[in-house]
Amino acid sequence: MKILVTGGTGYIGSHTVVELQNQGHQVEILDNLFNSKITVLDKINQITGQTPVFHQVDLLDYQKMRELFASTHFDAVIHFAGLKAVAESIEQPLRYYENNVTGTLNLLKCMAEFKVNRIIFSSSATVYGNINSGKLDESMTTGVDITNPYGETKHVIEKILESEATSRPELSVVILRYFNPVGAHISGLLGEDPNGIPNNLMPVVMRVAEGKIKELQIYGDDYNTPDGTCIRDYIHVVDLAKGHLAALKATDTPGAKVYNLGSGKGSSVLEIIKAFEDASGKPLPHHISDRRPGDLAEIFADPSKAKRELDWQTELTVADAMRDTINFLNNQK
Ligand code: WQD
Q1: Which residue of 71, 227, 261, 302 has the fewest C-beta atoms within 10 A of its own C-beta?
Q2: What span, in angstroms and rounded, lies between the C-alpha atoms of 123 and 80?
Q3: What single string gives the DSSP state of each residue in 91-110?
Q4: How high is the pLDDT of residue 281?
Q5: Does the structural domain 2-183+234-262 have CATH classification 2.30.30.220?
Q6: 150 belongs to the catalytic site
Q7: 138 CB less than 6 Å from ligand 1?
Q8: Per the database record, which ranges form the NAD-dependent epimerase/dehydratase domain (predicted)?
């Protein structure tokens, strides 16, 4: 298929482009390069031998995006593009709603006009809100007590996609709720490389390992968990990317479907630190600090629906993710 990947130079997007090309799909990337680098195209080429066609377009530039859809036919869209910094979204809600929601509306209008009838959407476990914790499955309530505008935009976009699938019976929508993506491509050429100050655990761990940040702050060790630190479901980004290939097959049938993409196993912050230290052979400087508002003690996926319906499950471990992250870091030097 010819597939348009929005946000395709980003962390999860670029790993997905590699897997799509490995499966023989023709990939074009639409990205505004706000939180990614154009050099990723060359890294993708080094891995697969193909450089994806690249369009530097912002989802808010409706006319330019419409010209792209008018110029060629896409069989499917995989939609990653969006702002994703939780803390920043609390300070800048209007920017997050405009960028993520209006951008998606522009994309969906182009898809309707040019009869592109398959979309896979990058959603997040954050849509389960703070009323659900522990093992989360797709039947649970979403959209209640989401603690940040970023998560709210993901929930709103899920609702928009479900409504559009109802109004356009030929449209197939697959919503993928990611848990905590970590790791890097085994080649060491692709990995998490956000611009600016990272929020998530692993990019901070990476900055500490590089000496750019002095110590990792552990946000609280007084939670009701075995070692007192929060538990999350860390999924290797290559497993996550392969989940999109499995989802692509599910777009053969119209309607809207939702799947958790997670390992089904939880790891605590201290366990992640230990796994990183085991992989690097060096201690990672860290200390306990105050809790971060909004953090839940334990969240991990029930991945059984994706296993049952997509025949997909994670194959890589947290140890693999730490090994590949360190390899990526060493490759940056
Ligand atoms: C993981 C754990 C922190 C940083 C977020 C978003 C969610 C999704 C995934 C996009 C928590 C602890 C972190 C640090 C720490 N993003 N931590 N020190 O909060 O589970 O989910 O990322 O879809 O939308 O909410 O991930 O990586 O921020 O935190 O102790 O410097 O690491 O307390 O327990 P989180 P995270």
Answers
A1: 71
A2: 8
A3: H-HHHHIIIIIIHHHHHHHH
A4: 97
A5: no
A6: yes
A7: no
A8: 3-262
